[in-house]
User: What shape does this take?
Amino acid sequence: MANAAAPAPRANMGEPAPRLDARLKVTGEARYASDFPVSNPAFAYLVTSTIAKGRITALDLAEARAVPGVLEILTHENTGDLKAVAFGSASTSTQQLGPEIDHDGQIVAVVLADTFEAARDAARRVRVTYAAATPSATFGAQGLTEDDATKVSERIKEAPAAGDVEAALAAADVAIDAEYATPTQHHNPIELFTTTCAWHDNRLTIYEPSQFVYGLKNSTAKKLGIDPGQVRVVSPFVGGAFGAKGQLTPRTGLIALAAKRLNRPVKLVASRDQGFTIATYRAETRHHIRLGAKADGKLVGYSHQGWEISSRRDPYCVAGVEDSARLYAFGAVRTKVNIVHADRNTPGFMRSPPVVPYIYALETAMDELAAKLRMDPVEFRRVNDTMTDPVSGKPYSSRSLMQCYDEAGGAFGWKRRDPRPGSMRDDDWLFGWGCATAVYPTHVATATARVRLMPDGKVRVQSAAHELGTGAYTVIGQMAAQELGVPLAATTVELGDSDLPPAMVAGGSNTTASTCSAVMKACAAIREKLARAATTANDGPLAGRDPGQVVLKDVALTAPDGATEKLEDTFRRLGVSAIEEYAEYAPEGVKPDAVKSLYASKGAMTGGPKGRKLMYAMGAEFVEVRVNAATREIRVPRMVGAFAAGRLMNTRTARSQLMGGMIWGISAALHESTEIDKRNARYVNDNLADYMVPVNADIEEVQVILVPEEDHDVNPAGVKGLGELANVGTAAAVSNAVYHATGMRIRKLPIRIEDILQA
Assistant: This one.
């Protein structure tokens, strides 16, 4: 039955089927990486650096080794067997174990013991002597270095540009010139960063929460100097990732080496505070935007320069101008991204990595310019809506942005808004309404799948795709069930194991589009075999029919004239007890060896601005903010978002993902920031008590509207992907609403009481 949590499907939407893995998760039967039992494990505990820059000059391990139960201590002095792995899509960093210290909280030793308690006790007794240097923590510090991203990054080859921006801005009737800032943020998944390694017959099995089991398999093999065929990664469920579990981190090779040395399995569960420095985070950014328009609101020029914090060692950046530069009919465009190297651990992908900081800055600037033009912010966006890329001139495959604004704005009641800042009040509360665009590039990647159909209609789907809590088991199962004409309950889906056919990293919202396209291909091959067998028979109800017209539905093959044959009879005709097909899907435009490369964890991903057409999912978000006139306390009592993302496989899982993204957007706008001790380049609030995130009292009414959209260009499944879409626009919508409530423009995140008091 349809309800708010399971919306009734509209055009091009699948049924809100309950999750296939729901019972396992609510009963505790779902097995996460550290839940897998291994025989006679040893336990690991990490020792991390207490300085952010310098060098280890001495290690005193005597007291640690004296703790009963300690088996071994790994340091830079005895781990030279580990190889360096290049920074890139499958590795978070080129960092090795000491003696050079690049950042606070860097792994300097691993203590191994018979019990967790002994390992922890011994780790605290490791004495490290450092020659410390003064670190550069963040923007404004002495000693930072800066690079043009296009000169040093493998991912970012060019910055979008078109026309003469200086001339366009000089000719604008109205313009703004403003700077914006976003903070460091950490993923903080509920499931900690864990690794269990076990060797058997010279083959390594790794149990680790992973968004890319093939990437982890191949990168660990490189780290150990062994053949990838000797490594298996098992990760059927991931308890939150948000980008932090997509690449090899330094811990995995160390635990694998430890298990080899001890000749017994080793389990590591890193502590919450260690997770802040042994994995990745969202980089701190700064933005300078210049935006100009004619008096009628038509944009004429857009200049956006961004700065992103990275480590000394690695040129990580997200360069969100690749997407922001294409969002509206800007006229002239100029962009640039700079990588700022500090004494910090290397950042990494965090949900909607390029667009969250860059679209926040752009959508706040759009609101500022609309206010200066005295235009309604929605109408300002409507005037500048476009079906053409202002940079390349390529068309959009589909674009439903204004439909999203119309549906969300109608549900929100936007037309009742008084445009004057500070004009809307309810007793002691000032309230304001803000809106912003959500946008995310439609990525699609190489993928493979194996599908087996049985005579009784039971289906098994296998792919090394990943379940991060997004509903992958369910939507992949729904695709197979729909294509083979069986109930969803008849499908079994196996994911998260590198012994299965490979799939790309669960990032960029590509999993449903990519894996479902491979599943469709395998199912089509099964249907073709069955239809051909039934129609080319000398006898039988479908003999002589056109196999292309036969459909598989309700565990039977049926022709357009109503003639039908039970599936089990067709199997009997074929003389087989099962039909299994393996399929490879490669999106248009990738290299011919893309699938082969996927087996080596180098699969190709395309889409967004890269294809013949621009491919983007879009949405519109409206937020009401209330600010107490006396205390300046900020509340968000309601928000409405409408989103269009091509074919939606399941309205229940889609709504859940979009709602979660909007809530995370409130978190980014008002709560979330990793505080940094600038003297020591150290994270201060590295725990869930001090790292602020919303709780139930912070989130009231959240309405999600699913807007129908059909797109035949994006991929065979017609799916655009939406896991990262909804948290893109929310922070700007909140910021714009704060301005409308108070008349105060806060250009940095998160917005807190003290910001409004100071303003």
Remarks:
- The longest helix spans residues 511-535.
- The radius of gyration is 27 Å.
- The first strand starts at residue 42 and ends at 48.
- The chain has a mean pLDDT of 95.
